[in-house]
Structure formats: structure tokens, C-alpha cells
Specification:
Two copies of one chain form a homodimer. In chain A, helix 1 crosses helix 7, helix 3 crosses helix 4 and helix 9 runs antiparallel to helix 10. Helix content of chain A is 38%, strand content 17%. The longest helix of chain A has 17 residues. The mean pLDDT of chain A is 96. In chain A, strands 3-2-1-4-5 form a five-stranded parallel sheet, sandwiched between helices. In chain A, strands 6-10-13 form a three-stranded parallel sheet. In chain A, strands 7-9-11 form a three-stranded mixed sheet. The first copy, chain A, has a domain of 189 residues: NAD(P)-binding Rossmann-like Domain (Rossmann fold), CATH 3.40.50. Chain A contains twelve helices and 13 strands. In chain A, strand 4, helix 4 and strand 5 form a beta-alpha-beta unit. By secondary structure, chain A is α/β, with parallel strands linked by helices. Chains A and B meet through helix 2, helix 9 and helix 10 of A and helix 9 and helix 10 of B. Chains A, B: It comes from Picea sitchensis (Sitka spruce). Chains A, B: This is NmrA-like domain-containing protein. Chains A, B: One of its GO terms (molecular function) is oxidoreductase activity. Chains A, B: Keywords: NADP, Oxidoreductase.
Amino acid sequence: MGSISRILIIGATGYIGRHVAKASLALGHPTFLLVRDATASSKPEKAQLLDSFKASGANILNGSLEDHASLVEAVKKVDVVISTVGGEQIASQLNIIKAIKEVGTIKRFLPSEFGNDVDNVHAVEPAKSIFELKAKVRRAIEAEGIPYTYVSSNCFAGYFIPTLAQAGLTAPPRDKVVILGDGNAKAVYVKEEDVGTFAIKAVDDPRTLNKTLYLRLPANTLSFNELVALWEKKIGKTLEKVYVSEEQVVKLIAETPFPANIVIAISHSIFVKGDQTNFEIGPDGAEGSQLYPDVKYTTVDEYLSKFV
Amino acid sequence: MGSISRILIIGATGYIGRHVAKASLALGHPTFLLVRDATASSKPEKAQLLDSFKASGANILNGSLEDHASLVEAVKKVDVVISTVGGEQIASQLNIIKAIKEVGTIKRFLPSEFGNDVDNVHAVEPAKSIFELKAKVRRAIEAEGIPYTYVSSNCFAGYFIPTLAQAGLTAPPRDKVVILGDGNAKAVYVKEEDVGTFAIKAVDDPRTLNKTLYLRLPANTLSFNELVALWEKKIGKTLEKVYVSEEQVVKLIAETPFPANIVIAISHSIFVKGDQTNFEIGPDGAEGSQLYPDVKYTTVDEYLSKFV
């Protein structure tokens, strides 16, 4: 475990990619970022982010998933490739696999996952198809014999915790909370910075080679009822709880058009079916907080305290 | 225009497909529905819907986009193919194109569109990629020389009007409304039943052959400010208006994970960029209410009255 691989990140200005890039730089990896338009000025936020990565020592490379030569050139510079492309670009990762296969020297590939373990879900459409697309990418990686780690980091805390998953809010509710299903299925909430740290910890670790890295952080594995109770305790107030039965959730998905129906269908998988915790981690998996007990992750309890 | 084509609908139990199927049956077309599992009992709502279509004379065929033989067999039975598959299955429509090409007798294909005109959008990611995927399907249809009509029906009224596009609500707001951009870009709201009627009207119409059918219903083409004003007049109350600048909207998209970011990015295209109305309909397009002035569509004014 003494090696410090050179890492290429594809999608480093994205929602989770920025945290993976920060962790790669913070943990001392020579870090390369493949960027569609490094001189883009139309998005000031993106340009600022790239400037800060450059200041931290990142190497910015121009290229894209659609430019095979640029991909090959970038892949040749590194030992490890991490894709953090957005959900709309999952299928395009087949282009990365092709480039990795062609270069032939990559020691580890982490495709864009960072959610439920797509081989262990009980989802309805449209989430079903979306999970299947990620599984298809997994199968392509395995078929090519590319060394991999799949990072199943479960819920992004920064998305779910500030509103307790209530659409349209900007802070956790203080009167009423809508709960999908019976509220007893456990989900896992991981702060985005911690997702980045755990992912980078795994890249040079033989214990995660050709395995799934699950983040089931003990302090952050909570049922929705437990999550609400934690919040209620903090604000010293009991919320009105509106439970939505699975049948009603499935009906709501059918009666909501794309793309809003995806949001509900993924919530159904997480909160009704319990797909983040309803299976045992097998020999093809390893749990992040057990592998890296030194990582001091942010707990849901700490996160919620910011909103009291 | 005397012919009554036989129509195959792929995706007839979906959000918009059910309305297209109803319209096909109501307007007297021999109607065939390709269904993944016609005996599926796990979804009572879907089974009920299929039963009602059967009672109205629809022919249910078993098959799927992944089963080429089933597609070819279904396509052989009809003159017109309408796809209403969900947004997560857009790319899989290449399989329909392949089957239509193989059969060679289809007089018109309507791919799954039913939104913005994807050749006239100014979207940011992830909406950009999603629109591009629909455009790619258009180019594949044209490359194969398949006769087509693209239905750009703009906003589903049933999704946007009941909440005035405010996340988390179940009725239009009575206190505060969030408005993306300056609220002056005009969008078009079309009730789902009317989308179905206009789409079916177009299938045997030579005026829509190899063209885009735009729905820019005069009574329903409104800026967000006009929409809010209409609601305010109905309830006799002025709402607090929170305007979100384009810069803030773009930042919010970047700070929201997939898939919720898609919802905001599509709203950015519609409500900030005005992509439903910021171009003239050219010679490759035709407008629905002008072609079919006999269709008595539901107006936004009538729709809003239900919530007073």
C-alpha cells in the first residue's frame, strides 16, 4: 500500500467529482483532470473551481468522452482512472473502457457510481433502467478484464439532510414531514467530502481490487423515522408525519412525467425498498469505515446541528 | 386525409402514452399496444389501464424494445408507429428504427418527443445531453429515410399547472411563488389529453409529413408572470414573488446531484431561456391549433379554475 498512484478524474467539476478531485490532491496523488473546455468562460463557477484545482497542483487536460484520441492520451499519463460523469453520461463511459483497454496499463478504474449498489436494487421504472445502465457498464468493465472498484456511497448527505428529502425546502421542516413507506428502511447518508476521501483511499488498496467499496458508516445508517427523531430531538419539537404507502408512491411515479419521476423512483428504491441496507456485504465487497477507521467522517448528527 | 391508419403505440401505459392510446381509440384508429408483460399483475394500475384499452378495442401485443422479433412482428401489423417510451429509454428507440427499416412499409413514425423542440434549445447540462439524445434519434430516423412527425408539445399542463411548477406542493401556491429568471419568457402548457388528440390528428395528415408539429396554443402560451397574474386574479390575492437569476439557477443546477438536477436544467431551458417560444416556426414545422382549429383544447384559464 506504499504506492501513490497518478489519478485521472473525468468529470472533476461535477457534483461529486469536485470532492473526489479535492481528496486526490489532498492525499498527495499526482492528479490529472480531463475537462471539456478548459478555457470555458461561460461558467464562472466552473472556471473558479478549475483555477483552485490548478493552484493545488492539478494538471488540466483538454478532452472529452467523444474524443477518443484525447481520452487515450489522458489515460496514458496515469495509473488510475476515476469517472465522476453525470447520470446522463453513464452509457458514454463505454468510451472510457475502450481507451483503458487500448492503453492497457491502468491499475484501477472507478466508474461513475456513487449511489445504490446497482447489482442489489429492487427499483421500479424509470430508476430500474437507470440502475441497469450502470450495471451494464460494470459488466463491460469485467468483460474487458479491467481492474476496478465500484464505490457504492449511498445517499449524498448534502442533498438529503438539509431538507430531510422534502422537495421545495431549503432547511429541514419544522412542522410536517412526508415519509415514503413506513419509514423503517435504513439508508446511509455520507457527506460529499467523505465520499471523495473514501474513494481516493481505495484506489491503491489491494483489499478493494475488483470489489465494491460500500459506505455503511455506522453513525450515518438510519431509518427515516430515526432521522426525523434525531431532528425532532434537536429542535425540541414533534413534527406531523405523513406516511405515503408503497402503493401510493408507485402510483405517484406513474403519474409524474420524466424527469421528475426518476427522483421519486430512486427514493422508492432507497426509502421504501431499503436497497442501501437490505443485503449483506459479501466477499466481493468491503465496507469503508472498517477499511479506513482513521477517516473522521461527518456524522448525520453533526450535519443536522448546523440547521438548528 | 380520408385514410384511418392502423397505429402501433409503444409505451401506452406511460405518462403521455396512455393519452395517445385513448385518442387513437377515440378517433377510430385500429390500435395496437406493445406491452412488456401483458399479464403483469404486480402493477394493478397498469393492468387496469390495459383492461380499459382492451374494452375500447385495443389489440395488446407482447414484446419489448429489446426483443427484435417482437418489434418486427408488431410493426408489420400497422401503418403508423408512435413511441411514447419514457425519457430513460430514448436511446433504445434505435431498435424501433431498425425494425421499421426492416419491415419497410411504415407510413409515419412519431418518436417519443412531447416536450421542447430539441433542435431549438439553449440548455445547460444535464438537460443538454438529454435533448441531444432525442436529436440523435431524429437524425437516425432521417438517415434511414423513415417518414416522421416530431411532436413538440411543450409543457405538460397536468404537471406544471396544479403547482405552478413549485416543488413539493399539491396545489397552486397562495402565499409565495418562486420564478426562474425574470418571468418574461413564454412557455406553452398543453393538457395531456389534448397532446394525445393533436398527435393522433397528425398521423394521417400530409401537412405534418416529415415535419415537426408544434403545439403553441394561443390561449396557453404564457409567460410565468402572466401565469401567476392569472392565478392571482382568480384567488383575488397578490403573491410574494421570489425571482431567481439565471446565474443562481445555473449554480443551483451545479450544486444539485443527478437526477434532481435534470428537473432544474429543463426548467432553465423552458423558463429562463424561453426555448419553447424563442424561435419562429419554419417551413419544416406546423402549428397544431392552426392545422386543427376544431380541437377544443383545455385552456390554462379553465385548468386553473379547478384549484380556486
